[in-house]
Write a structure and sequence with these properties.
The structure is a single chain. The protein is α+β, with helices and mostly antiparallel strands. The chain is about 20% helix and about 30% strand. The chain has helices spanning about 100-105, 110-125, 190-205, 220-225, and strands at about 15-20, 25-30, 40-45, 70-85, 135-140, 145-160, 165-180. It has a seven-stranded antiparallel β-sheet with strand order 2-1-5-6-7-4-3. A hairpin with a 5-residue loop joins strand 6 and strand 7 (about 165-180). The model is unreliable at about 50-60 (pLDDT under 50).
Amino acid sequence: MTRYADIPKPIRSGIVIVDPERGAPQRVIVLQFNPDTLERSLAPQAAGETGETGGGGAGSGDRNEALRLKGPAEEQWKFTAEIDSTDQLELPAPNGIHPQLAALEMLVQPTTAQLREQARLAKKGSIEISPIEMPLTLFTWGVKRIMPVRLTELSVNESMFDVNLNPIRASLSIGMKVLSVTDLPAGHPGANLYLAHLAQKERLAAAAGVGSFGALGLSPGDIGASA
């Protein structure tokens, strides 16, 4: 007989906020439910091609650069996250799911202290005010996918409210860009985490089965003849 204690506890996906200077974790945001689907896109940064993402039209660059890459592919993730407290309505929740929503929204917002500091510098007549640096954001999807990201999209659809108009159910569309060594300075904790993420891909690729020429209806000589 299987006991509940014998059933593996599912691993949740989530977000870890990290101090960008020391690399120390500051906060963990666990997604209540794992998304049912993930949409991922990779745009190679080909040498000699034009375009913001490095994916310019074919033939737009030097033919000697056709097999060269300028850097890691630009990777984008999109998914829908659900937050629901309707099964906990008997418990005191004076703010509904406001705290969970606010924690995610603060990933794309500077703090009031940072804004006040910028206003203070501007009032003093500072010639140049640096953009506000946000904490390093990591997205985790199990131990094989831990990557530095920047949120590019956060769309919230609130669909149920309590008597005080606090949201108690919401669907969030989240878009993220994986930050690579192209985006971060050398030695940055995020750059090191990206290299670890890429190394994990290399290990998984090495574990893939090796195909055969016969499965393609070819022989090694056919490839040599066409090269």
